[in-house]
Design goal:
Elements: H1 2-19, E1 43-45, H2 48-60, E2 69-72, E3 76-77, E4 112-121, E5 124-126, E6 135-139, E7 142-155, E8 159-160, E9 163-167, E10 170-182, E11 187-188, E12 191-196, E13 199-201, E14 204-205, E15 209-211, E16 215-216, E17 219-224, E18 228-229, E19 232-233, E20 237-244, E21 247-250, E22 256-257, E23 260-261, E24 265-274, E25 277-280, E26 283-285, E27 288-289, E28 293-297, E29 303-307, E30 310-313, E31 318-320, E32 323-324, E33 328-332, E34 341-345
Parallel strand pairs: 1-2, 2-4, 3-4, 4-7, 5-7, 6-9, 7-10, 8-11, 9-12, 10-13, 10-14, 10-15, 11-16, 12-17, 13-18, 14-19, 15-20, 16-20, 17-21, 18-22, 19-23, 20-24, 21-25, 22-26, 23-27, 24-28, 24-29, 25-30, 26-31, 27-32, 28-33, 29-34
């Protein structure tokens, strides 16, 4: 009987080690965990070193990922305890992530990456470089079924938790719990900047976003022909210029539908600020805002637009079956001046 209990204890210990994900040591693997890269036999990625191997392949070769399939087989921990319980960056020595696809030349990701319901924890980027995210630049790619959490990203132009810059792609079922900061343009919880012809579906952001430029809970700036559907933002946004709970700036033929923002969204310095979109040129349907919207400006000569759904609406854009359930406010932080004015509305600012 004692031997039997001893066996159970040893089995429990073995299982605990088996289930605990290995923390990345900054190394690059020499191969994937298996697979041949086809749809039925995707390349298998089981740890941080193998994920870094993918990044290295994309960033040092041309068109490696075209038409190929990649799949996570386990949760991955790149760094531990990056963020504190107060959502601030902890002190420590973290391995900085090099994005998969660092630029818009030949070194971009063009395959299918399936997170398979797993998570990546501890993604850490802390520099002013452009094209920052798990993926820096994607084209003709699919990214799906993945969560990023306890992560910190501080980058330049085109920074997003999952994708810095996208075109001709599809992202679906992605969840970000990363804190994102930038002083440049194109900052989003999921995608920083989308050039166009990309579909965004069933994505959510829970992380705080801070920018001295435009920003969006899902996408910072969304190009033409790129519909956004079934997305939600729960993370506070504090930015400038064109800022929205879902998207900062939204292009033509990029319908937004069935989306919700529940978080506080703030923008200052010539704001086009909305609970769903800061600036919009497309249709918005079946969307809801339940977060406070605060706009401010200290420049007397700027025109400002703040709305519960959209701040500044393009001439051909439309809004239908949408609701705002929280206060929308605007304050001029400079001295009163007769040249200063703002458009503020429960649904649309201007």
């Amino acid at each position: 009987m004692k031997k039997f209990f001893a066996f159970l204890i040893m089995a429990a210990v073995t299982c605990s080690f088996t289930l605990h994900a290995q923390v990345w040591d900054g190394s690059i693997a020499s191969d994937f965990d298996g697979g041949s890269g086809t749809e039925t036999d995707p390349y298998q990625i089981a740890n941080g070193a193998q994920l870094a191997y993918l990044a290295n392949l994309i960033n040092t070769s041309c068109n490696f990922s075209n038409g190929k399939y990649f799949q996570l087989t386990a949760d991955i921990i790149l760094n531990e305890n990056v963020l504190s319980e107060a959502d601030t960056l902890n002190t420590g020595n973290f391995y900085e992530w090099t994005p998969i696809g660092e630029d818009n030349g030949y070194h971009h990701f063009s395959g299918t990456f399936d997170g398979n319901g797993h998570s990546i924890k501890g993604l850490y980027i802390n520099n002013g470089n452009n094209f920052r995210g798990l993926f820096g630049y994607i084209e003709s790619a699919v990214i799906r079924n993945l969560t990023i959490e306890n992560s910190y990203l501080k980058g330049g132009d085109y920074t997003g938790a999952f994708v810095g810059y996208s075109k001709l792609s599809s992202v679906k079922s992605l969840i970000s719990k990363a804190k994102i900061i930038s002083t440049a343009s194109g900052l989003g919880g999921i995608i920083g900047y989308n050039e166009g012809n990309t579909t965004i579906d069933s994505c959510s952001n829970y992380g705080a976003i801070t920018s001295s430029n435009g920003a969006g809970g899902i996408i910072g700036a969304n190009g033409n022909s790129s519909p956004i559907s079934n997305c939600s933002n729960y993370g506070t946004i504090d930015a400038m210029f064109r800022t929205g709970g879902i998207v900062g700036s939204n292009g033509s033929s990029s319908a937004i539908s069935n989306c919700i923002n529940t978080a506080t969204v703030k923008s200052s310095d010539d704001p086009a600020l909305g609970g769903i979109a800061g600036f919009n040129k497309s249709s918005i349907t079946n969307c809801k805002n339940t977060g406070p919207i605060f706009g401010s400006n200290n420049d007397n000569n700027n025109e400002n637009a703040v709305g519960g759904i959209v701040g500044l609406q393009g001439a051909s854009a439309s809004i239908s079956n949408c609701s705002n359930q929280k206060e929308v406010s605007y304050i001029n932080t400079s001295s009163p001046d007769q040249n200063h004015y703002a458009f503020v509305g429960g649904i649309v600012g201007n």
